[in-house]
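We were asked to recover a plausible sequence for a given structure. The inputs and outputs are reproduced exactly as logged, with field labels preserved.

PROBLEM: sequence recovery
POSITIONS: 144
GIVEN STRUCTURE:
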């Protein structure tokens, strides 16, 4: 098996924690991210429960506006228990961020994608996150 094919298969094994409250959008994003291994969650608390149960993920894709907490608050909680997952995260924003969350995004270097977006763009972002996760697992990029 050649190196490129093996690398592509490794990236497709990336586990995605996908958090979105809107059922139709969650279903569509799950479909778009099907080249990976998405685990869809309709609530931030459910996503945290999955992590507490011992499930591990390579990347996080989360909505910003949710009922239980913002995507930034979810990211902060995840960063306390799984630093590498927090590093490989994408925040999806409809509208804008609060000034406080703008500072948080800048300080944490959290990737942001604004709605509306096409499926190709989501796949590109996921590919970048999967690549980063794979490189981190190999120890070729630092955690700082």
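RECOVERED SEQUENCE:
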């Amino acid at each position: 098996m050649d190196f490129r094919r093996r690398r592509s298969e490794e990236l497709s094994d990336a586990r995605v924690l996908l958090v979105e409250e809107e059922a139709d959008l969650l279903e569509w994003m799950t479909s778009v991210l099907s080249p990976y291994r998405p685990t869809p969650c309709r609530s931030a608390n459910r996503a945290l429960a999955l992590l507490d149960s011992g499930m591990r993920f390579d990347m996080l894709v989360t909505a910003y506006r949710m009922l239980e907490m913002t995507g930034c608050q979810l990211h902060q909680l995840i960063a306390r228990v799984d630093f590498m997952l927090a590093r490989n995260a994408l925040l999806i924003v409809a509208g804008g961020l609060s000034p406080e969350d703008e500072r948080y995004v800048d300080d944490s270097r959290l990737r942001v994608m604004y709605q509306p977006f096409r499926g190709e763009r989501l796949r590109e972002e996921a590919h970048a996150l999967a690549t980063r996760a794979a490189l981190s697992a190999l120890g070729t990029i630092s955690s700082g």
